[in-house]
């Protein structure tokens, strides 16, 4: 596009409140922003100033995969943000740009390849089977979140990380304190430090790199001086926290299937389409509140006819991109056999979620187990009475009362 065709008219700044949304309702403010244009301006509840927001798939992919937009530069800025006590750690992998970001990600890549994820599939299936056995033995009614959806992802990510079973409960407690805004900045920061201290000891103890788990991979990398210990610890903390996001995501997925019995009935009747269906549900579900982490434009960049100035903060919405009508016909409808389905539920570009394969595998196992072993599974309360998390960055039911 020729420079003289770029618009210099700034769109209005829209305030985006931190609303605690329930169910699988799409954020109404985000829906309005998508209607207003592919690139808009937003002000979130915390931080300072305003930021650009890209919502169209092509623009989202451009921003997250273009070195002209930097995560590292956020360290030196007070950017408008969702979290009230957001304190980025310098050197943390989430705030690094290539090549340092690439160097860190490379150390744990073997654990998250298709082969690495398959390594834990059998054990994940066994752990899930045991949880369902206990659920059935206890009998209805039950809180599916407490009984299955929470302990299962914790067990799987701990298995992949190399965290002993005895330490899983502590990991879960730290993660909840880090992710919640309800306890204040000091409590969250203390939990982060305690988890970091734990991983520092675990990684140091695995310095021989004999295992295939993440702690062993990081211990070996530290031993080879490819990464510093504090870098390895920061990456381990991020992976551990991210692993528990499956609890909220799967909670939304199961809630949707229980409130749309037509979908559940079809998946019971056609088990062959379940992998495709899981991908479609991942595309459709609004798994987070507002937006994630911002980037800073390092130079003037044109997006959809709008000039982004050097120094401007830019956010993307993967939720909006997953409902781009230019990419997904009838994007607000659930098509269990949608193909192709190039969703970005796990992000895109260098900072895409390394655990995407793992999360998809866990979701497939959960869908299989719940549909096949609990054919009469249904909500024990009205859909509107299911409590959803408040003050959390990742959306999902706090409890899921069910019977069968």
Keyword list:
3-stranded antiparallel beta sheet; 15 helices; alpha+beta; globular; 6-stranded mixed beta sheet; single chain; 404 residues
Structure notes:
This protein is α+β, with helices and mostly antiparallel strands. 47% of the residues lie in helices and 8% in strands. The protein contains 15 helices and eleven strands. The strands form three sheets. A six-stranded mixed β-sheet has the order 1-2-3-9-6-4, sandwiched between helices. The protein has a three-stranded antiparallel β-sheet with strand order 5-11-10. β7 and β8 form a beta hairpin. α3 packs across α9. The radius of gyration is 21 Å and the shape is globular. 42% of the residues are buried. The N terminus is likely disordered.
Brief digest:
The chain has 404 residues and is α+β, with helices and mostly antiparallel strands.
- Shape, please? globular
Rg result: 21 Å
Detail the poorly predicted runs: 1-5
Instruction: Please write the string of helix (H) and strand (E) elements.
Output: EHEEHEHHEHHHHHHHHHEEEEHHEE
């Amino acid at each position: 596009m020729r420079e003289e065709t770029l618009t210099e008219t700034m769109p209005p700044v829209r305030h985006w409140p931190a609303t605690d949304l329930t169910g699988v309702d799409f954020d109404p403010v985000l829906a309005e922003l998508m209607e207003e244009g592919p690139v808009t301006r937003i002000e979130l509840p915390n931080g300072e100033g305003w930021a650009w927001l890209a919502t169209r798939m092509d623009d989202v992919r451009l921003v997250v995969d273009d070195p002209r937009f930097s995560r590292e530069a956020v360290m030196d800025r007070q950017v408008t943000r969702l979290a009230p006590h957001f304190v980025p750690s310098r050197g943390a992998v989430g705030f690094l740009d290539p090549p340092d970001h690439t160097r860190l990600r490379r150390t744990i890549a073997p654990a998250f390849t298709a082969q690495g994820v398959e390594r834990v599939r059998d054990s994940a299936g066994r752990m899930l089977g045991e949880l369902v056995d206990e659920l059935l033995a206890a009998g209805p009614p039950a809180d599916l979140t407490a009984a299955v959806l929470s302990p299962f992802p914790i067990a799987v990510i701990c298995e992949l990380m190399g965290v002993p079973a005895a330490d899983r409960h502590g990991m879960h407690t730290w993660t909840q304190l880090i992710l919640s805004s309800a306890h204040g900045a000091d409590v969250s920061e203390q939990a982060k430090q305690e988890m970091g201290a734990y991983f520092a000891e675990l990684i140091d103890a695995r310095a021989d790199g004999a295992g295939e788990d993440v702690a062993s991979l990081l211990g070996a990398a530290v031993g080879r001086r490819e990464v510093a210990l504090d870098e390895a610890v920061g990456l381990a903390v991020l992976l551990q926290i991210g692993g528990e996001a499956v609890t909220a995501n799967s909670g939304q997925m199961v809630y949707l299937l229980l409130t749309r019995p037509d979908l559940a009935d079809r998946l019971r009747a056609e088990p062959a389409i379940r992998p495709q269906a899981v991908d479609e549900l991942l595309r459709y579900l609004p798994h987070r509140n507002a937006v994630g982490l911002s980037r800073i434009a390092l130079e003037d960049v044109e997006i959809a006819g709008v000039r982004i100035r050097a120094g401007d903060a830019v956010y993307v919405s993967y939720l909006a991109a997953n409902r781009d009508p230019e990419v997904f016909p009838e994007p607000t409808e659930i098509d269990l056999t949608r193909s192709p389905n190039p969703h970005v539920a796990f992000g895109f570009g260098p900072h895409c979620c390394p655990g995407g394969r793992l999360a998809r595998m866990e979701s497939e196992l959960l869908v299989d187990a719940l549909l096949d072993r609990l054919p009469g599974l249904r909500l024990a309360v009205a859909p509107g009475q299911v409590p959803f998390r408040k003050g959390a960055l990742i959306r999902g039911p706090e409890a899921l009362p069910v019977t069968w």
